Structures are given as structure tokens and as C-alpha cells.
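writing this on my phone so excuse typos. first protein, seq and then structure
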Amino acid sequence: MSVTVRFKFMRTGPVRYLGHLDMLRYFQKAVMKAELDAKYTEGFHPHQIMSFAYPLGVGMETYGDYMDLEMNACEDAEALMDRLNAVMHEGIKVTEAVILREKALNAMAAVAEADYELVVAMDGMTDGECMSVDGENAYEVLTAAINELMARSEITGGKSGKNIRPGIRLLECSRCRENKDNEDRETCSGEFRLVMRLSSGSKLNVRPADVFDKLCGTDAVNESGIRFKVTHLYRMEIYGNDKDGRIVALNDKAAE
């Protein structure tokens, strides 16, 4: 009896410039090279039954994305993870693997929300430059802009023109120099970290770039005269719903 294995993976460094189809082909070749017992479609052009939770944008790094692979048989998901990692190139690594319960939604259909981190700098700062005179004020401006944006009941964003405010679940700012947990990521003391949890999927899909654009268009930012730019963009986690409607990470076996 076939089973579906969900792999959580990270993508960092130069490979972040791969497009979604390139990532798909990369994983297909990795599965073949690792000699995993993947299940294939029937017909004249069989291909692996594989799906990704949420296509990665070109240039986006991730520490929490997911790929589902249907297998003819599997008893040890972690052993599959080790075999895949043995053939992976630098910058792509599988960090977890779980066998899904029968009739679970595939990764793409299960997506409900996603976490992002944007590293933001004042436009015009050089790499490695520390806090300038305006740096301390910039943090206050960003905080005021967040409060202004989150106080609105309606925010029109994206090409669809939909109200994206209900899809902004979380929006916070911190100074990068205060974060001790993520020292491996490329930041300097004159930068700020925006943390977002946004609705994702077919019902309401909110892009971090749209939220950042709206943030830069607030009165708080416009009146300050400070301009901001995104220097790095990370997707940290993707979530689905359990049977009771609670938000859980897609590697949680309770995810629908």
C-alpha cells in the first residue's frame, strides 16, 4: 500500500535564485539519485507523484518549506531524509520527514498561513554600516507604522485589490542587534527584522512584499522622510489546520 511522506526542507545561499520549476526538477533528480521507492503516475510519460506546499519566489530563502512524495512503501521516514541529504547540493537540506496519515490533504491543499522574516535597512545604507544618527529614530518610525497599519480595518493590496487586513495575523519589528537566536543570518546592527504571519492559500493569499509596501506608504513613514528597503527575505514556517481548526505546522501529524 502506498504512503505519502512529507519532507521539510531549507533553501539558503545562491540556490535561492532557483525558480519553482527548477526546484521541482532538482528534487525529482535527487529522489532518483537517492534511489527512493517513489510512486509514479501511469501512462506514456510517468512522473513522480510530488507536490510542494507553497512555491518559493525567486530570491527567497526558507527554513520551513514542504514537499510531499508518494512512496510505494516506507517504514522509516528519517532514513529517507538521510538518503536525500546524502545527494543534496550545498544550500538545500531536508530537516524533517514524517509519514502522513491516510487521506491527509496534500501539502499545497493544506496551506493556511505562513511565517516570514524580512530584514529591513534604511535605503542608502552600505553593507555593514552601523546605526547612523537616524537609525534609532528609524526603529520608532517602523513601530509607529506597524501600529498605524494594524489599526486599520481595511487594507487593499495586491493585484486582486482584496482587503488583506484579515490576513495579516502578526506584524512585529525588532532591532537585528537584539536578536541572538539567528546569528547565522545576514544582518548588521543598522538593520531591523520584520516578523509577519500571513494568510496563505486559495481563500486569501497575502504576500509579504504587499505588506511591506503598505507599511512604507503609512503616514508615519512618509512624514519621517526615511525610506526603507528589504535586504533579505526568509520564509520560516508554513501552517495548516488540524481537525479542530487550530493552526499547526505542516510537519505536525495533526495537520489536515
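second protein below, same order as before
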Amino acid sequence: MKAASCIVSFIGFNRQCSAFLDRYHWNQYRLLIVLAVLPCIFAWKQVSSLPNGLLYLASWLLVANLGLTIGYHRYYAHKQFLASNFFKIILAFAASMSWQGSLNSWALQHRIHHSLSDQQGDPHSPRDFSNSQKPVSFKSFYHAHYGWMSHVGQQIRAGEKGMISSGRNLAYVNRLSKILGNNNRYLDFDGQYKYAHPYILDLVQNPLERCMSDFYALFSLLSVILVVGVSIFVAFIQSGSFDDQLILANVISAIYWGVIVRSVLTQEMSNITNSLGHAFGYRNFETKDCSKNNILIGLLTLGEGFQNNHHYNSMSINFSRRWYEIDLASYFLKILFLTPLAKPIQKQSY
């Protein structure tokens, strides 16, 4: 009983830490920007000469972005494919390196975004709803890029009101209302019944996936430890011994380039998808929103820049539709489909 009580307390503590990080995501991001910019201003020569800096940045940026686009976005938010339990853990861990909030928080915001894309209640639309003559203003663009992060809770509540008032979503809301009440309750780890937002019932009612969200804070901490551990190993490989100075230089380099700068760039890639991806580009399909395709953003974000294609068919794992549209994450997924880690739900038109 004592061991079980310790496990319950441990999980509860992790949940509280994850909720804290969710609430103060904007403050956390501003701190990361300061930590990334100040060394460049006052000690650029020292920072730029840190060993293996670009290697750490490129490698961990790739891992974090793959975790974000394949994990948080394509699997947890849209359930576009089937994943083994082991792969679910790997995806949640890799996505936590993006430092963009817990799994449930990210999926909830994204599902509301799709439900009310570029309408009142969309958490991060660049549309200026107050000016029909000017679809995108500086203020609305800033909101889609940065502003929405400062009041995520308000955005979610606005999305809920928009869902209820929108005729296009009324049928879906009515269907969701039927599963509220006891069917919406789940037994939490502390033995108490909690209520889940109807948009993430599937995530909350799955014990493993609920744990992946609760352990966001722990995963974020472990990801930093992993980056530091790899940097120590790299220093040992380079010197053939435990050279204290080289190890220290590699650890500082890994923390700066592989954690701080990488986290800022990962968030910026998501931000430009939210703002530029719904403001500038071309369209392959007529949709009810303002989603656009942007080849440059698509390359930078491993395929996330083809927003128009994605909003046209959000269940397709492949966000590209033209030969010149490159969705690198979908290529990676096709390789994974050859392994026991992941399987397609149905035959898709790649």
C-alpha cells in the first residue's frame, strides 16, 4: 500500500508540474528567447566557438520537430495512424522536447483550431474579424504568431462558445453533449473522478495516453538530461578520455544550442505555421478557412507548411499533393509503417 501511495503521489506531482508549465507557457517562451539572445549580444564569439554547437542544434531540432509533427499533431491530435504502446511513449517524449505544453493541452487547442478554423473561437487565426476589408492586420497576425500563447485558457473558452454558436459545428456539439455526464468521467490516479473536455475524451480515457500528458514535465526534464548525457559521450569519443574542459564546453554547447536555441526555433516553426500558413501562400483546394500552402514553410517544418492540403483532408498522413510539395515527415512515417511501431489505419492516397 505504501508503494502504491508513493506512485500516486509521484504521478500527481508530475500532473501539477505539467499543468503549471501549461499555464505559464508564454512566460517560459519569453525566458527562453532572452536566454537565447543575450549570449549572442554580449558573448557571440564565445558562443559561436562552442564545440559541436550546430551539430547539437540540427540533430535535436530534427528530433523535436519529428516528435511534434508525427507525435502531437498526426498521432495524438488527429489519430491518423496506429501506434504501438512503446512508440506512443517515444512520440510523447520526443514531442516534449519542443516545450509546447502537455499532450492534452496541445491536442485540445489543435482540435478546436480545426473545428473553428479561421472563425471566431479559433485559438490562433491570423484573420482580423473586426475588419472585413482587411482580412489580415498586424494585430491579428501578431495574435496568431505570439499573442494566443499569453491566454490559452481564454482561447479555449472562446472556442467552446464558438462551437456552440456555429451552425457548422452544432451537430458535432450536440453529439458530444450526449456523452457528457457519467460517460465523461474517468477514475484518476488519486481515486477521484475527474471530468474531461469532450474534445479529448479519447486521450483522457486511455490510461497510457493520459500518463503521457501527465508526465510532460518529467519528460521535458529527462530530455535535457538526455541532451547533456549525449554531449558528455561525444566529448569522450572526441578526446578518448574524460577531459574535464572539453566535457564542460560540450555540456554548455549542448544546453545552449541543443536545448535553449532549439526550443525557440521549434516554437517559431509552429508559430509561422499558425500565422503565415493561414495568411500567405497558394491553395490547391477550396476550404471554408484561409489555409494556405507554403513550400518554404513546408521544408522548414517537415511538411507542416502545407496547411491548405491538411485542412482539406486532416486524416491523411501526407500533407503534400503536388510533386514539388515535400512532406518529409510522411516519408519517415512510411518507413515506420514497415516496422511493428506503426501501421496505417487504412490505405491512403499518398
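Strands lie at 81-83, 185-187, 193-195, 342-344. thats all i got for now
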